[in-house]
Amino acid sequence: MASNPIEQAHLLASRGQTRPAVVLLEAAGAAGDAQALMQLAVWQLAGTHVARDLDAARVTLRRAVAIGHVDGALMEVALTASGNGNARAPDWQGAIALLDKAAAGDPVATAQRALIGAMALTSDGAPLRVPQGQVISASPRVVHYPALLSERECAHVASVGAGLLEPAQVIDPQTGRLVPHPIRTSDGGAIGPTREDLVIRALNLRIAAISGTRVEQGEPLTVLRYSPGQEYRRHLDTIAGARNQRIRTVLVYLNQGFGGGETQFPMLGLDVRPRGGDAIVFDTILPDGSPDTRTLHAGAPVTAGAKWLATRWIRAEAIDPWTIHAG
User: Fold this and answer.
1) Ranges for the Fe2OG dioxygenase domain (predicted)?
2) Which residues contact 60 (CB under 8 A, 6 or more apart)?
3) Is residue 322 part of a domain?
4) Which of 56, 130, 132, 206 suits 4 as a labelling partner, its CA being 20 to 30 A distant?
5) What are phi and psi of 233, to 5 degrees?
C-alpha cells in the first residue's frame, strides 16, 4: 500500500474505490493534514474522481487554509474574487481581506498586494478610468491601446503563465493522439480560475472594460511564448459551429526587444509591431454573427529572442471557465 494518505487515495481512486479515497483524505484532514484537504479540494474543483462541487471545494479549501496551506490561501483569494468562476457572486473586497491576511506571512501574497495597491481601481476591482485607445482600422474595427499594462504587470502575467506553458497541440481526429498544432508553433498555457490571482483578475476586468464586454464573457487569459522560428500562421479566431461564438480578441504584448513577431492583418494591409504593455482589440464577427474574414491575421515568425503575449478571446455570452472548450 502507498506510504501516505494522498498516495493511498490516488491508488484507491484508480481502482474505482472513490468513496474510500475521499474518506481517507477527510480523515487525514481531520487529523491536521492540510495537503490531504488540498488534494480533496482540487478533486472537487476539477470534478476528478468525484462530482464537481465548487461550494464543497471552497469549504474544504477553507479547512486546508485554516491549518496552514499557503498555496491554498492564494487559491481561496482567487476563487473569492471571481465568485468560483460564476458559481457565486464575485467578492473583490472579501478577496482583498483574504490577501491581506495571507500577506502577513507570505512574500508572494505581499508582492501581489503591492501590485494591486499600485492600480487605480473601483471597489470591485475594475479600472477607475477606462483607458483610451487609437482606432487603427475602422472596418473591421481594430483599436490600439498604448501601455495598457505596466512593466510590472506584464512581468506578473508572464511569471504566472510560465509555469503553465506547453507546446501547442491538437487532437488528431484519425488517431485520437495529441499532435503538434498545424498553424501555431508557440508554447502556451491558460490561467484558469484557481490561478486567477487578484492581479490577473484586475487585468481581466481592465480587458473587459476596453473591449466593452463583461468579464464573464472572456475565456481564461492565455499566455503564449514564441521562441526564434516559432509563429502563428494566418488564421481566424472564430470557431466553426460554435454555439457561443468568439466575437472579439484582445492581444496584450508582454515584452519587447525581440526580432520579428509582428501581428499581421494581410487583408487590411496592417502590421502591428509589438511593444511591451501595448494591446490591440479587434472584432471577429460581422453584424449578422458570421466570421469576418477580413480579420484573418498571423503572428510573424520570431527571428531573435522570445516574444511573450497574452490573449483573451471573448465570447458572445458568458462562459463557464471550468468547462470551456472549443465549442
Assistant:
1) 217-316
2) 29, 37, 40, 41, 44
3) no
4) 56
5) -65, 170
